[in-house]
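Sample intake sheet
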Amino acid sequence: MSRYEQEFRRSLADPEGFWGDAATDIDWYQAPTVVLDRSKPPFYRWFADGVMNTCFNAVDRHVRDGRGQQAALIYDSPVTGTQRTYTYEELQDTIARFAGVLRRTGHPDR
């Protein structure tokens, strides 16, 4: 059995254990203490007491960890024949510029 298949089966058999382990690979401001909050069925919540920044985890930490020049996003349109690769640093810069635009227009931070 491949590692992928093992992990897939584990995710089905023990979803809380699987996702709890996976959550250790994320940078958290406040790590969750509960993986799955079942207190208000059917409105279950994953990592309800955890606090993190999705953009930081998707882009900024890769720049921080020395992978700024690595491809982060590859755009390839078969319709227009357009191809473009963005590095983590390019994405970080674009996001920062757009955040500045939002701030200047009075858009709330959250």
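Comment: The mean pLDDT is 95. Residues 60 and 99 are 14 Å apart (CA to CA).
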